């Protein structure tokens, strides 16, 4: 009888512990890769799922630095020439979110399409 009150608590803790890894799988970020070459993004309109965190990998194949920026995504990060960076974005609603290279905005522009 001493163990009776503890069993429901132990069962609840065990159930919560077992459920946690499965819930975390749904929160894994979606990965999107964009390449900057010749001061242009490719693809210019990458897609990502709505309601999930997103990791945007920016590969700069140019020899000069770029500044991956998006006011809509609240991102501003420099990527050195020949290097790759990763930018994590919070879950988004469906829509088009503009991004650009702040150093070459006239040619380097794209939109993250969230569906």
What do these coordinates show?
The chain is an alpha+beta fold. The protein has one domain: Sandwich (Immunoglobulin-like). The protein is built from one helix and nine strands, in the order αβββββββββ. The longest helix has 20 residues, at 6-25.
- Run of helices and strands: HEEEEEEEEE
Radius of gyration: 21 Å
> Which structural class matches the secondary elements?
alpha+beta
CATH superfamily: Cupredoxins -  blue copper proteins
CATH architecture: Sandwich
Low-confidence stretches: 10-15, 17-24
Number-wise, the strands total: 9
Using the alpha-carbon principal axes, give the shape: globular
**Tally of individual domains:** 1
Distance between the termini: 55 Å
Which range does the strand content fall in? 35-45%
CATH topology: Immunoglobulin-like
Q: Sheet with the most strands?
A: 5 strands, mixed
The helicity comes to 10-25%
Strand order within the widest sheet? 3-9-8-5-6
Record keyword descriptors for this entry.
115 residues; alpha+beta; Immunoglobulin-like; five-stranded mixed β-sheet; 1 helix; globular
Q: What would a concise description of this structure say?
A:
With 115 residues, the protein is α+β, with helices and mostly antiparallel strands. The chain has one domain (30-114): Immunoglobulin-like (Sandwich). Helices cover 17% and strands 43% of the residues.
Give a topology summary.
Elements: H1 6-25, E1 30-37, E2 40-42, E3 47-48, E4 54-60, E5 66-70, E6 75-79, E7 84-89, E8 95-101, E9 109-114
Parallel strand pairs: 1-4, 3-9
Antiparallel strand pairs: 1-2, 4-7, 5-6, 5-8, 8-9
């Amino acid at each position: 009888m001493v163990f009776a009150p503890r069993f429901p608590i132990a069962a609840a803790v065990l159930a919560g512990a077992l459920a946690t890894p499965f819930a975390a799988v749904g929160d894994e970020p979606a990965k999107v890769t964009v390449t900057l070459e010749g001061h242009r993004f490719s693809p210019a309109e990458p897609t990502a799922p709505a309601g999930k965190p997103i990791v945007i990998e920016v590969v700069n194949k140019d020899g000069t630095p770029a500044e991956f920026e998006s006011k809509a995504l609240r991102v501003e990060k420099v990527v050195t020439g020949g290097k790759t960076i990763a930018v994590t974005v919070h879950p988004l609603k469906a829509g088009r979110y503009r991004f650009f290279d702040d150093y070459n905005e006239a040619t380097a522009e794209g939109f993250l399409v969230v569906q």
